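haha ok so turns out i had the wrong file open the whole time. this is the CORRECT one, sorry everyone. sequence first:
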Amino acid sequence: MNFIQYTAVCAAMVGLSGCSSSVEDYQGTTPEFKLKEYFSGNLTAWGIVQDINNKTTRRFCVDIIGTWQGDSGKLHETFYYADGETQIRQWQLNIQQDGTVTGSAGDVIGQASGEANGMSFNWHYTLRVPVDDSEFDLKVDDWMYMLDEKRMMNRSYMSKLGIGVAEISIFFDKTEPLRKCQ
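then structure:
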């Protein structure tokens, strides 16, 4: 398969996978995803980044502290990458009257938006990602799935110009007090 054929197949797969799931598919599933409850206080998560060839390119741990005042929240995330890099992202979140969620962060272009249904939460945003001496704006289709009241899985699909370029898998755990990932 040449590069053009490969790119066309990848684009078709991304297009099909983007249409295959919606939060409505999770209506009635449990445990119910409750953003404010789950992201209140301290939690720790571990993850991997995989490139277009499914090769794991980075591993990380992230300590998260969530605080809320009414329907406005802040998530302070400190990422500790296996290669020694540390990154901080601070989300400002707002739960709207209709239950949808909007948010912003320093490396998010524009506004993030999402909604929950049943055990799932789907979050969409554009993330500015530094790579070597360049920056790329990647679309993120982020899916969170409650496993039980204390654990959650997250799958993020990143694309550029409609072509999948990376996937991120993250396991969240609230069973113990905040751990320092370092």
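DSSP finds two helices and ten strands in the chain.
again sry for the mixup
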